[in-house]
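Subject: Predicted fold for SidA/IucD/PvdA family monooxygenase, 346 residues

User T.R. writes:
Posting the sequence so we have a shared reference for the thread.
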Amino acid sequence: MPRVIVIGGGQSGIAAAKALLELGARPLVLEAGAEATGSWPHYYDSLKLFTPAWFNALPGAAMPGDPNRYPTRAEVADYLRGCAERLDCEIRTGHRVTSVTRDAGGFLVRTEHGAELTGTSVVAATGVFANPHRPELPALAGYTGAVRHAADYRSPQQFAGQRVVVVGAGNSAVQIAVELAERAEVTLATRKPIQYATNQPIPGDSRFWSALSAAARLPLGPLLGHGAIPVVDIAGYKEAIDAGEPDRRDMFTAADGTSLRWPDGTTEHVDTVVLATGYRPALDYLRPLGALDEAGRPRQRNGISRTHPGLTFVGLEHQRTILSGTMHGAGRDARHVARRLTARRR
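User M.O. replies:
I've generated the structure tokens; pasting them so everyone works from the same file.
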């Protein structure tokens, strides 16, 4: 019987399995996709990490190539693929978990194809990409144009010549809007002015990253809540937006057909609204266990379930530090969780 079942074979699941192996556990990794790369192959084509390669390497597994570059989506997927191949444990792909319940020996994990697996412990490491957040926007109630989430965005070619409004003020919203502005007429609609981490693009060897890494060692994530992370400018995004390519406006106030109304009372036709409004944890398989609250958030502290001993989490935003939802944070959090789980076995 597997001692620890890791649900998810992306960055968080690989980090968890690696940390468990280092402490003598024998994890079994269940990945819904065809390979252990998580959601990285499914993000938009031009995506680059907003942090340098050296900053994102999992513990003991440096990213190949220039450590100060900002890796692309494909490079991250290749990196995780290599990490998975080097893990000395079983990884079962094509195993989407549908439920986790209590079992006499610990937990019973069921997959969509009917497999039943038991383990004394479970690490929920399924990330967020499968659960895009589409907030209620009353101003969109009467809109009949296309509405897409950033999870569905791939490249600007599909929007060439269109009038597009991107909703959001985070890193992905800014990167997508700037890229789209090369092929379409684009507005970035936000509730508040965009907050930037710095006023200039940050090079990969900047001391900024060392300072951020040090700050991310502190278990302050739960105390800081889930506020927006300032935009990290790695390619002149602020300059482009300040120049109006794209322009930034306060959020639209109403819609009628394919027209949006702006706060100044003007209206205009808009072909597509892109919601770059983030994601929420993809943990529905834990509902039968009763490990989530009414809003679907896990009842946990620092990655350890408050309700079910032996259930842990890796990859949740702010679960332990300010960077818990990133690859940088997942590596550290995985070690914390692994230590707790292996201590239970003794």
